[in-house]
Description:
Layout: H1 3-11, H2 21-42, H3 47-58, E1 67-68, E2 72-74, E3 80-82, E4 87-88, E5 92-95, E6 100-102, E7 107-108, E8 113-115, E9 117-119, E10 129-131, E11 134-136, E12 141-142, E13 147-148, E14 153-154, E15 159-160, E16 165-166, E17 174-177, E18 182-186
Parallel strand pairs: 1-4, 2-5, 3-6, 4-7, 5-8, 6-11, 7-12, 8-13, 11-14, 12-15, 13-16, 15-17
Antiparallel strand pairs: 9-10, 17-18
Helix pairs in contact: 2-3
Amino acid sequence: MxxxxxxxxxxxxxxxxxxxxxxxxxxxLAQEALKLTAQINGSYHPPEEIRNLFSDLIGxxxxxxxxxxxxxxxxxxKNINVGKNVFINSGCRFQDQGGITIGDGVLIGxxxxxxTLNHDINPNKRSxxxxxxxxxxxxxxxxxxxxxxxxxxxxxxAIVAAGAVVTKDVPPNVIVGGVPAKILNEIDNSKE
Length: 192
C-alpha cells in the first residue's frame, strides 16, 4: 500500500479494520514515527534542526516560523499539516492518523493531546478504528494539558483553557474550558 492511498483512506473517514492492509500500514508508519521522535527527543537540537526533523516526520516542509520544544510524540506523523507561526510546547502527543490541520499563528501548550482515532465500541471489534480529523483554525491558543478528541474543529481566534477536554466544535473567538469543554466567555477583537 502506498502512503497516499493510506492517507486517502483515512481522510475519507473510512473504518480501519484490525489486521487489514491499512492497519498494517498504520503499524509500519508508527515504527518510522517512533524512530524520528526518538531522534527529536533524544538530545538537544537547535531550532533549524527541529524544523528539519519535524518536516521529515510529517513528510512535508514546515515554515521557517515553526517552533517546537521537545519532547514530542506521535504514532504516525504523516497526516499533520502545519501553518505559519506555529509553536508547539513540550510534551505534546498527536495521534494524527485521522488528520490534524493546524492554522497560522497557533500556540499549543505543554502536554496537549490531539487524538483523531476512536476504537469501535463493540468489544468484539475493538481493534477496528474510526478516524475523524481535528482542524485548528488560525490564531488559536490551546492551553496546557488540554485534550481534543476526534472530529473537532476549533474556530479562528479561540482559546482552549488548560486541562479542558474538547468533545465538540468550538466557535471562533470564544474561550472554552472544563470537562467536557463549554463556552466560558467571548473574545472581544475590537480592542487593540
